[in-house]
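Quick entry between incubations.
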Amino acid sequence: MARIVQKYGGTSVGDIERIKRVAERIKIAHDEGHELVVVVSARSGVTNELIARAKAIHEHPSERELDMLLATGEQETIALTAIALHALAVEAVSYTGAQAGIFTDKAHTKAKIKTINPQPIEHDLQAGRVVIVAGFQGINEDGQITTLGRGGSDLTAIALAAAVRADKCEIYTDVDGVYTADPRVVKDARKLDEISYDEMLELASSGSKVMQSRSVEFAKKYDVMFEVRSSFNHNPGTIVKEEVVYMEQVVVRGVAVDKDQIKVVVGDLPDKPGSAARVFRALADANIIVDMIVQNIGHNGVANLTFTVPLGDSHLAEQALGPVFTELGGGKVTVHNQIAKLSVVGVGMKTHSGVAATLFQTLAEHRINIELISTSEIKISVVIEAARADEAARAAHAAFGLDKL
Amino acid sequence: MARIVQKYGGTSVGDIERIKRVAERIKIAHDEGHELVVVVSARSGVTNELIARAKAIHEHPSERELDMLLATGEQETIALTAIALHALAVEAVSYTGAQAGIFTDKAHTKAKIKTINPQPIEHDLQAGRVVIVAGFQGINEDGQITTLGRGGSDLTAIALAAAVRADKCEIYTDVDGVYTADPRVVKDARKLDEISYDEMLELASSGSKVMQSRSVEFAKKYDVMFEVRSSFNHNPGTIVKEEVVYMEQVVVRGVAVDKDQIKVVVGDLPDKPGSAARVFRALADANIIVDMIVQNIGHNGVANLTFTVPLGDSHLAEQALGPVFTELGGGKVTVHNQIAKLSVVGVGMKTHSGVAATLFQTLAEHRINIELISTSEIKISVVIEAARADEAARAAHAAFGLDKL
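Done. Structure below.
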């Protein structure tokens, strides 16, 4: 008998029939004698529908009220999932984020989990009940409903797995696991059986949409092993954990493309000590995630900064930087949309050289121009023209032999 | 400056445009300097839609989970209403029932309000904010979400008006107020400017759908004066309060028809002391509201009981009585659907005789048969054939001169 946290995303609970199928899957694990905590998302589409309603009323709805509104999406799913389990004669009880004791900070729409009180869930588990928890939401110390932002339901699952000391955490989604590349783009992409937290993190931050980085970071921090697998079949998925022992000496584990980034060039910035720090402090204060920074010291006492930010944040970035430019006495923003970030990832890169050379050589052979480069211990990313991204991914996948077992 | 509780029903907040119009109406009162607590229902149709989803999964969904599910309806409306007020530059903040400190007992789907902690609302009112509260819902001492059952949002408004010591409570609905009869049935029906709690109570229990009895009872108990008025125009509505001084010596104030009742005949009941008490105790324990009781002592040691119950509860009533019949050693239930209850109501009846005689005479002239009769100090009700109910209402309305000013 194990204690298992399962998480089902919006597609898996997209309608009544799918909720029933999720309940059947939960029942199988329950009948095997496992203790189950199940995290569910809002039905797919519901969150966007609610946001659309709010925006039909106000261009920039209050974030507190958005959280109040969005939290209803998961609250509906938990109740329906519990009812579906009752229909299968499985004892089950639903919990909102607040009821599950998920306490967050006060950052509405992108709150961070501070603590989880596992007592109420523990009580129901010991009574033999399946506990269904609303993903994506929590409560702050003022009793306000908060939401955790993108990927919040995965985070709820991983954090709960840590809090209730689960033996296993299963993230059910609409893909079979983590692939060496996006199978829609690279035909020969293969599913990985195992991957390390660090590789998963680099893949997530590189546009592999399987999971958000923050959930993987949380899992790494609390050493929560989890499996990403499909809710639509019974195939084994990809296990994500600290140490992965490879049978073969694999250097590159995956290729990822992120088209949801834009390139921001801050020009005419007075070249004073602290200018760049001031810029990135302002972006951080606005909760904007900045990636791939390049600084060029220009002539005439002005500097240029180039970096990438998530697509949706360009407006926020411009807003955040306005006051900084006033304060520094100069600066202007130019935004470039048609870019993509291509990354190759693998822990083997720590001890192998030549990965960068192979990547650059491959892109050169395809006459694909590199606009920005950034590297970490286990990743190399390049910004290239968006229109060439898929071609580049296929070329890199082949160049690193990822199509071969 | 007054402190006002306003309540908007599901039709008034039925879609985005209507929510915006409600916000405009709230803004008018806010701009006049009033402190405002606004209770809103779920958008019309939402609650039924959610129930349908639950029933598509399970014929008898768990009441706890139903409450979890249904509470999302109002939670959506409070957020959207607050956002609509922000769009009009009015400071506003939404509260779930739990956040508004509305504590109930544990009777899921028909919980009773036990206490309200007015502190959080008081705090926001003093800060100049409009407080938007989810109607129909509360929280019990175990932290479980409960709902208050039919008419729950009205009850929330009246209870909040008592808790925050409001000067006024306005119940906005889709009718202009309380009429002498249903204007769709009786063309000459007139809107009443004022009505006493007791008359309103008798009208509510007699099928006038303006408000549920329990809200009026609560208002009477805590002496909360309230006004029933339309959210679609600015006409004054009907004020409901303790003492109504009439300019004219009106005896009957209104005629009501209730078609949502069924007649239940319990036959072959062993005629022992306590048999009837046992029957009605079982019905009360099942939370079934019984009205218009007639007992006939039959021959051969068996008795008959006849009474009316709400249409939806006939199945529950049969269920509740099964064990009683076993215990008493006899009894069977027959249900009669095609009936209606016609009532004439007026505090003047306390000091006037002849009302019953006039009603019976009028029905006799129309050859409408009376199946059951019950009377209170200020009401006479008769059960008649459903098909003749509208005709009977028109006849009674005219007979008591309600069509004349």
